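Lab notebook: predicted structure, single chain.

Context: the supervisor wants predicted structures on file for every construct in the current expression panel, including those that have not yet been purified. This is the next one on the list. No modifications to the sequence; it matches the entry in the shared construct table.
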Amino acid sequence: MSNEESDTLWYPSKLDVFLNRWFANYEDARRALRSEGGYLLPYRHQFFVCQAEAIRAMGLDPHDEDWKKVGFDAARPADEQAYARLREKREQAEAR
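Prediction complete. Output recorded below exactly as produced.
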């Protein structure tokens, strides 16, 4: 997978229908995640926080235990192995 694809893996075009919270820097996104919940994901040089419906639309299970292990944060995951599993699942879903 190229860097361009890697940078956009977590935001497929079908997420445009969801109201996601966008941030120019990680710290603001992290604060929003802590205060409002959701899933923090990277997109190129930005970050966004989405809800479970967007995770499902990406072909992932929002209740997957790996989300808890990464701290619901794919930009700076707490558990690299759990992140690798989520990333692999996301890549497989994108390939379908």
